[in-house]
Design a protein that fits this description.
Shape: elongated
Number of strands: 9
Largest sheet: 5 strands, antiparallel
Radius of gyration: 24 Å
Strand order of the largest sheet: 3-2-1-5-4
Number of domains: 2
């Protein structure tokens, strides 16, 4: 497995793990199964043992399914544009390892046989559950992510556009509201969950995603960096590298390295030190020259 695929899988996994609705459903399902005792567990196990059994079973199977789904989503992102399709493919693929996990746990706890017939039976049981789990995962996505996915799919059907610079877009309204003097909210923030909509700090490319960093948290969006910059609210920052954009208010300092071929790095208010590409050095010096320090 390449480092890029591994990193993409971990990002997909993180994007699923931070969904509160998934954990709410996990708790509800575990509690319900512990009380009702489906699949014969009510007759075979007392309540305390049944609670431990379903907590172990759900933790192991959910973890297996999430890892498998994340891997398939990352592997197919360039071939299958729609996220729900990738989710369902991942769910179908996850039925095999989930069925194996179910068989192993049942063998250890309730002494069920460990053979190919039992594994196949549990795979068939796991398949519709995995598909339902994928539907739940899709429903847990934020509106902004679904909109970003649609835009990302549209972008893949178009010719690549050149990366926009930090110059203001005259076709869009100014970041300043002339009626009240208050800044409008950048359109990019409408893609984020409500609890993360704070002043923008920076944007960072992570494979097919853009990591949006605000004063209230971070969020991965499926879109191009150029499109994200276009939604930052006008001339409010600078792209410093092909993978980084930083807002004006978030530049703590610009550090100049010594040597015959000096390089610039930007230190941001969230504690990151980001590289400045040589092609962007003149713009960075012109924009934040008063913050340059170093040799």
């Amino acid at each position: 497995m390449s480092d890029t695929l591994l990193q993409s899988t971990l990002r997909e996994l993180r994007a699923l793990l931070i969904r509160p609705r998934l954990w709410l459903v996990f708790a509800l399902v575990t509690g319900l199964f512990s009380v009702t005792g489906p699949f014969g567990s009510y007759e075979r196990l007392p309540f305390v043992s049944r609670l431990g059994y379903w907590l172990t079973m759900n933790t192991a199977t959910w973890a297996t399914a999430l890892i498998c789904i994340s891997f398939v989503k990352a592997a197919l992102i360039a071939r299958v544009p729609h996220q729900i399709t990738r989710l369902f493919i991942g769910g179908a693929v996850s039925a095999l390892p989930v069925g194996l996990v179910i068989t192993v746990i049942n063998t250890a706890v309730i002494k069920s046989p460990l053979n190919l017939d039992q594994i196949a039976e549990n795979v068939l049981v796991a398949l519709p559950i995995a598909i339902g789990f994928c539907l739940l995962s899709w429903l847990s996505l934020s509106t902004g992510e679904l909109a970003a996915e649609k835009q990302g799919g549209d972008n893949r059907n178009q010719e690549p556009a050149s990366t926009p610079t930090s110059a203001p877009n005259t076709d869009r309204p100014s970041v300043t509201d002339v009626s009240g003097g208050l800044p409008d909210r950048p359109p990019l923030l409408d893609r984020l969950p409500a609890d993360k909509r704070g002043p923008l700090i920076r944007l960072e490319v992570q494979d097919h995603y853009v990591l949006v960093v605000t004063t209230r948290g971070t969020e991965l969006l499926l879109m191009r960096l150029g499109d994200a910059i276009a939604e930052t609210g006008g001339n409010t920052g600078q792209q410093i590298h092909r993978s980084h954009w930083v807002s004006d208010t978030s530049v703590k300092s610009v550090i100049r390295d010594g040597g015959r071929n000096p390089r610039l790095t930007v230190q941001t208010t969230d504690g990151q030190v980001l590289p400045v590409s040589r092609s962007q050095m003149p713009d960075v010096r012109a924009r934040w020259g008063d913050r340059i320090s170093g040799a």
